[in-house]
Amino acid sequence: MLYFEEACDMRIAQIAPLYEAVPPRLYGGTERVVAHLTEALVEQGHEVTLFASGDTVTSAKLVATRALPLRLDSAPLKSDLASHLTLLHEVRRRAHEFDVLHFHIDLLHFGMFEHMPERTLTTLHGRLDIADLLQVYERWPDYRLVSISDHQRTHLPNANWYATVYHGMSPRGYQYSAQGSGGYLAFLGRISPEKRPDRAIEIAKAAGVPIRIAAKVDEVDRAYFEQRIRPLLDHPLVTYIGEIGDELKSDFLGQARALLFPIDWPEPFGLVMIEAMACGTPVIAWRCGSVPEIVEPGITGWIVDDIRQAVAAVDAVRHLPRARIRATFEQRFTAHAMATRYSQLYWQLVRASRSGHLEGEAA
């Protein structure tokens, strides 16, 4: 067992994707997690340098390798690959300044840092049931990988998994609501086939409860939105708000009777679930991906397998104590808990690097 004092005062590089600012102005999962992790590590006494896009707000040392995040750049033609290569060049140039390089960009860095994998930690934030991934992780087996749920490992069971670390958020950013007096169901995130907003609307209609949808539409999902979802928005129980930022989330989630999370894909984590819990709002989620690891049935919400069960849960969640939901969030999913776990992993890497060997799997 590591004592926290052992893990203090490390020089840590956090390497974020360049698609959104850190934290994002609106939607954005990975960059939001990196923001909360970075702030918590700084508060714990580490010397943190954040490699990210411009428009980033952080108490760490910022190295902005692109003036604007890719999503907010209005340039008609831009290259995410070229932008990330520039980012990686700068990280490699300055790698000697850090004890640990913590990458949040999937596998983009593998070819450039294979001479120093023992000083790196790679958190995989996305889905792993994708063709071609297996051969990459077999080609570069020395990188220590962190999963964000145990289920995420399912499709790459033999990869070099080092630990599972659940996401965490700062409680300061989410206001607890004791009642959820808005009388509506909430859907928050992204309009896409795998997120199943159509299923959320079906649940709300069957339960006879209004639903408010606060979600962005990526261009890749524009046709799906226009053809499949927009026609459903004319129903009197359905209100489409569009994309919202952090300043509106507490009210939107906190006043809801429940968050609907009716996904249809192997969700690696599902950040919106713990955002709802931070507001004291129960979660009704499909039994898919990481959901059984995040939602505790009868405590923070209900896990369902079909529309009938979901409709029943809409009534059942009214009896869940919202103070207990918030308390569960504070016990399991705070940024401090996430940063403490990562700092333990960093120290294990540093200690192993200094001694010339790694002391087994940390998970």
Descriptive overview:
Pfam families: Glyco_transf_4, Glycos_transf_1. This is Glycosyltransferase involved in cell wall biosynthesis. With 363 residues, this protein is an alpha/beta fold. It has two domains: 189 residues, Glycogen Phosphorylase B (Rossmann fold, 3-Layer(aba) Sandwich), CATH 3.40.50.2000; 161 residues, Rossmann fold (3-Layer(aba) Sandwich), CATH 3.40.50.2000. It is 32% helix and 17% strand. The chain has eleven helices and 13 strands. A seven-stranded parallel β-sheet has the order 3-2-1-4-5-6-7. It has a six-stranded parallel β-sheet with strand order 10-9-8-11-12-13, with helices on both faces. Strand 12, helix 8 and strand 13 form a beta-alpha-beta unit.
In CATH, the homologous superfamily of the largest domain goes by the name Glycogen Phosphorylase B
Which residues form runs of ≥5 with pLDDT under 50? Answer: 1-5
Q: What's the tally of helices?
A: 11
Overall outline: globular
Number of E-type strands: 13
Ends apart, CA distance between termini? 13 Å
How many separate domains make up the residues? Answer: 2
CATH class of the largest domain: Alpha Beta
The radius of gyration over CA amounts to 21 Å
Structural class: alpha/beta
CATH architecture tag of the largest domain: 3-Layer(aba) Sandwich
Q: Mind describing the biggest β-sheet? A: 7 strands, parallel
**Beta strand %:** 15-25%
Summarize model confidence as the mean pLDDT: 92
Q: Do you know the CATH topology of the largest domain? A: Rossmann fold
Lateral strand order in the biggest sheet: 3-2-1-4-5-6-7
Protein name: Glycosyltransferase involved in cell wall biosynthesis
Domain Glycosyl transferase family: 184-319
Domain Glycosyltransferase subfamily 4-like N-terminal: 27-145
